[in-house]
Amino acid sequence: MRLPSLDNGRARELISRFAGVQVLVVGDAMLDRFIVGRVTRMSPEAPVPVVLFQSEHVRLGGAANVAHNVLALGGRASLVAIIGRDTAGERLKQLLTTAGAATDGLVEDPSRPTIEKVRIVTERNQQVARVDYEHDGDVDRTIEQEVVGRVRKLGPGVGALLVSDYLKGAITRTIVGVLVDLGRGSVPLVVDPKIPHLGCYAGATLITPNHQEAEIGTHLRIRTDEEAREAAREFRRRAECDAVLITRGERGMWLTDSKTEGAVPAVAHEVSDVTGAGDTVVATLALALAAGATKAEAAILANHAAGIVVGKFGPATVTRTELVSAFTS
Description:
There is one protein chain. By secondary structure, the protein is α/β, with parallel strands linked by helices. It has ten helices and 13 strands. The protein has helices at 8-16, 63-72, 87-99, 141-154, 173-183, 211-218, 225-239, 277-290, 295-309, 320-326; strands spanning 22-27, 29-42, 49-62, 76-83, 106-108, 115-122, 127-133, 160-164, 189-192, 206-207, 243-247, 253-256, 261-264. A hairpin with a 4-residue loop joins strand 6 (115-122) and strand 7. The two termini are 25 Å apart. 47% of the residues are buried. The model has no long low-confidence stretch (mean pLDDT 93).
């Protein structure tokens, strides 16, 4: 069973409505740093490649990449997240400012570093190693209340609310509860989940587990559309949310809510890197729902956006022009 296709004219209309929509993103912000080099030999000291340094670049990651995607698609983004009192935190703020995101929602926690993932990759974009700088325990009560305060200050009047949960400490049951209360009855709340927090998301509008998360969260195997439907129904029941969109990579997506069920076939594109594709999906979903799309229409738009971003290297963004072109080419 497939969802009805989205008419090109309707798609363009919805995408045009993204302009100026305010989205509040709450979650685990991070920096993604890439050290790029050329491998010509193995180390004589250990069975590892020697990478001859060529370049280094830094990108917004995690919840910060979600906010960046909102901005690239024409929306406006406020980000509530936790950073350390360190150089990486200052760099993250600079990148957000350059992208056009507000930074007054950032909360400094001197007890933890700003989350940073350092990837060593070859000139052909093959990853050699990754080093993570993080402290992934839940934030203490004082920091949690600071986050709640920023959410309550920045949340009223937005078009959509979005949780980007990487299980690094920024998302707690209390914080999600405040977001649910803010959005209840009028503002969509989209959640990119982590399964250990499944019990925290009750009341969300739409939750987007990937294939593996859906299997773990439901204890069901997913190989076919029928199995995806059963898993989505069970996930929706356990999470107590309005709708579930399972992202299935090359097999597309599966959407289930109280009125609609169906598959969204994958959009055929050459895959370069799936890093950050989920960030693009939830950003597009939030903007589409705020723009008046049905959940099925939002899923189709997000599916096309994901098809574009996996053709790019690292955490990347999709523009409104690119997304419109996907429906006109």
